[in-house]
Write a structure and sequence with these properties.
Helix content is about 30%, strand content about 35%. By secondary structure, it is α+β, with helices and mostly antiparallel strands. Strands 1-2-3-4-5-7-6 form a seven-stranded mixed beta sheet, with helices on both faces. Strand 2 and strand 3 (about 45-50) form a beta hairpin. It is globular and about 35 Å long.
Length: about 130
C-alpha cells in the first residue's frame, strides 16, 4: 500500500464509496491526518485507513479487485501491528465477495432511517491465509 494525497481525482474516485455527510467527514479526517489515503500496488483500488490501537479500520474502499488486493490489505495491517481489520460498508455483498473464504465476522449493523444500513465486519489477521 502506498500513501497518496487527497486530490480532486482521488475525491472523485472515492465518491461512490461514501454516502451523505460521510463524504465531508472522511475527507476532513484525511486532511487532518486522522485517516490516510492509500493506493494498492496494482493501482486499481483506493482505501481510506486509520489505526485505532491494534485495529486497522478500513473506512472506505473504491476501485476494483478487492479479492486480488486483499492480501496487500492484510499484510499492511500486519506490518502496522494490527491484530484485526475492521471494515465499514453499506454494500456487504461486495465485501463478502471480495473477502470470501476468509473468516470475516459481522460485528455490528447500524440501522439508518434513510438509506442503507451500515455493516461493520471484522477480520483477525494473525493466522489468516489468503
Amino acid at each position: 500500500m502506498k500513501r497518496i494525497q487527497l486530490t480532486k481525482e482521488a475525491k472523485k474516485l472515492l465518491k461512490p464509496a461514501l454516502w451523505g455527510n460521510a463524504e465531508k467527514e472522511v475527507f476532513r479526517e484525511i486532511e487532518r491526518g486522522i485517516s490516510r489515503l492509500y493506493i494498492t500496488h496494482s493501482r486499481d483500488m483506493l482505501a481510506v485507513i486509520r489505526f485505532e490501537a491494534a485495529e486497522m479500520v478500513v473506512v472506505a474502499v473504491a476501485g476494483r479487485n478487492l479479492r486480488q488486493n486483499r492480501g496487500e490489505l492484510i499484510d499492511f495491517a500486519r506490518g502496522n501491528d494490527a491484530m484485526t481489520i475492521r471494515f465499514h460498508t453499506r454494500a456487504p455483498e461486495h465485501l463478502k465477495k471480495g473477502l470470501s473464504g476468509l473468516p470475516i465476522v459481522l460485528s455490528e449493523v447500524r440501522k439508518r432511517l434513510l438509506g442503507r444500513d451500515e455493516y461493520v465486519f471484522k477480520l483477525g489477521v494473525n493466522n489468516v491465509q489468503y
